[in-house]
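hi support,

uploading two proteins for the ticket. first:
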Amino acid sequence: MEFQEVKMLSSNYKSSGGLIRIRADIQENKINDIMITGDFFIFPDSRIEEIENALEGKELNLDEIRNTIDEILKDSQSTLETEDFVNAIAGLQQEKLAE
């Protein structure tokens, strides 16, 4: 049986719209599982779950991630911008490189 490396990474990003906390399982540079929490406002709040579901299985490619999040947030009200989420996820990449 062959085991693949799975890394649990976390990132905190403070924007003017609030704090974003990200925890993600990363395997072979792909997001297996991601959880987004924080002290920000978003309506409808189901958008966070939509973002999480849309990012699962995606490469850690910030351009793709930006496009995905932007599409989900276009009809939402939030104290955060797409770029705030992208910066929080970029923190995962920085943590991964630091290992």
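and the second one:
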Amino acid sequence: MVSSDAGGGVGIQRTIQPCRAAGFTLIESIVVLVVASTLLCVAVPSLRHMMVRHRVATAQMDLLASLQDARALAITSGRRALLCPAANGQQCSNDTHWEKGWLVGSYRSDKASQLDGPPTRIHGGYPQLIITSTGGRTRIRFQPTSFSGGSTVTFTLCQRGYAQEALAIKVSNYGRIAGAKPSQDEAMQCASGG
């Protein structure tokens, strides 16, 4: 704005505007915290289910791979192959719980409960999960013809308290190995501790 002063000169008149402080007000900060905590409360249970689902799916894939390895070992070597639970990673155990780990290797017909020589695969297991086999099956045996002796077996894999995230593996007498969803009863029994 231009103005003249008493001396006949031209002067510049300035208007001073008040400065506005930059940043957030206390009210805005509280609203952001409330919205963020609400979103977090909604997301955390979903995240937990996703983590459990991933853990169970990973265990299912590892056990499927071990079963396929045992079957392939029997076919390619022309010898009987065995998959068994192993709590110590050295020797087969007589347990229907597999979460402590398992072994794959060959066996002789006169010693069908233990491996003949060192295992070809050792898996450390999943101690945070529950992995059970049905029908009292503590050994899965494959013949060189690829058949699996004994009855059809179902493995149920879950984490305690999460029946809806349970998965299964089915092994038929013909040696067919397939991932599956367990029945509701199998899932509930597994999630309650096996």
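thanks. also noticed: The first strand starts at residue 2 and ends at 4.
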